[in-house]
Design goal:
With 380 residues, this protein is of the alpha/beta class. Helices cover 48% and strands 11% of the residues. The protein has one domain: 2-enoyl-CoA Hydratase, Chain A, domain 1. It has 17 helices and nine strands. One of its GO terms (molecular function) is 3-hydroxyisobutyryl-CoA hydrolase activity.
Length: 380
């Protein structure tokens, strides 16, 4: 059986090393499994504590995807086992959040090569990296509304920090964004073409890495900026920039119903907008409510508090059944006919919605209680 994550260490010419982690499940588009999380957590901690490692590169195997999301097919199969399955899903989410937080808090330069499909859990890995690369084939989305979930793995944090209206629009519509869009909404830092990847690796080997972490960050930024300047003309046009004013207008309504009505009734020939409309129309009405309240509730929260908030919300989703039904319809039986608990936005029961936002744990016994309190990479 092949390893789900391949680890390598490249030796630079001046003796320091580059840690390379490759998600190794190309058939599943490198879907983030629990085994991958279990492999990545200790290795990233080890590399952070190893003075010989100057920087880390995380990439996906194959050309189609960095990571197409969490391994929700496996989660679905587990959730068929009622309570035990929901507990297993909750543990997966918990460990995934620990990994994502580690990446956000990583002190050494951590580069994610976000080429191809980057969705859901893949974006959770990428969002917190210090140096995030997108390419001409990058296709990024948080399409959880299509499976009865919500934009997790930090969506509460990064969606709220996008240009006005973009976070809510992307959360409700699951719209796919390209490299230029990702740069616009701060989901990426640099654009390179796929053909320049080997050139990048060659140049990283040539860098005179040192013991000063801040200088190593600067050295990596310098390499990426220089290479990026050479391929600027290959950057695709941004749909979000093109429609920024419209998106602000569509999401300015005073209620979810008003906003959903505005988005779904746009009269436009633009194919990107039409796909966004269709996804919202066919998505879970309950998820739409959850996403709307999620982004309102999490606005003042720190990153660690967002992760704690989302873990409870995700665990409730694993219990309730909407998530299971969405996965069944889209990925298991593939009939694309989910039987949502509520047929429309207006039919969603406020008491059900309130239940999702009641935290499963007290602050003292929350599984992620220690996030943000001390360096997560040390002694865990």
């Amino acid at each position: 059986m092949s390893e789900v994550v391949l680890f390598d260490e490249l030796t630079a010419i001046h003796g320091k090393k580059i840690g390379v982690a490759t998600l190794n499940s190309p058939k599943s588009l490198n879907a983030l499994s629990h085994d991958m999380v279990h492999a990545l957590l200790p290795k990233l901690r080890q590399w952070q504590d190893n003075p010989d490692i100057a920087m880390v590169l995380v990439q996906g195997s194959g050309e189609k995807a960095f990571c197409a999301g969490g391994d929700i097919v496996h989660l679905y199969k587990g959730m068929q086992n009622d309570t035990q399955g929901a507990q297993s899903a909750s543990q997966y989410f918990c460990d995934e959040y620990k990994l994502d937080y580690l990446i956000h808090a990583y002190n050494k330069p951590l580069l994610v090569w976000g080429s191809g499909i980057v969705m859901g859990g893949g974006l959770g890995l990428m969002a917190g990296a210090s140096h995030r690369i997108v390419t001409e084939t990058s296709r990024i989305a948080m399409p959880e509304i299509t499976i009865g979930l919500f934009p997790d793995v930090g969506g509460s944090y990064f969606l709220n920090r996008m240009p006005k209206g973009c976070g809510l629009f992307l959360g409700l519509t699951g719209a796919s964004v390209n490299a230029a869009d990702a740069l616009h909404v701060n989901l990426a830092d640099h654009f390179l073409t796929n053909e320049r990847k080997q050139v990048l690796l060659d140049q990283l080997i040539e860098v005179h890495w040192g013991d000063t972490i801040s200088l190593n960050h600067e050295k990596l930024t310098k390499v990426l900026s220089s290479l990026g300047a050479e391929v600027k003309s290959s950057l695709p046009k941004s749909n979000l920039v093109k429609h920024q004013q419209l998106i602000e207008s569509l999401t300015s309504g005073s209620s979810l119903s008003e906003i959903v009505d505005a988005i779904t009734t746009i009269d436009s020939d633009d194919k990107w907008l039409q796909r966004a409309q269709k996804t919202l129309q066919h998505g879970s009405p309950l998820s739409a409510h959850i996403i709307y309240r999620q982004l309102q509730t999490s606005k003042p929260l720190s990153l660690s508090d967002c992760f704690r908030f989302e873990l409870s919300l995700a665990s409730k989703c694993a219990e309730y059944g909407e998530f299971q039904e969405g996965v069944r319809a889209l990925l298991i039986e593939k009939d694309n006919q989910p039987k949502w608990k509520f047929a429309t936005i207006d039919e969603v029961d406020p008491q059900v919605l309130d239940w999702f936002f009641e935290c499963k744990w007290q602050a003292s016994n929350h599984p992620l209680a220690e996030l943000g309190l001390r360096p997560i990479a040390v002694g865990q």
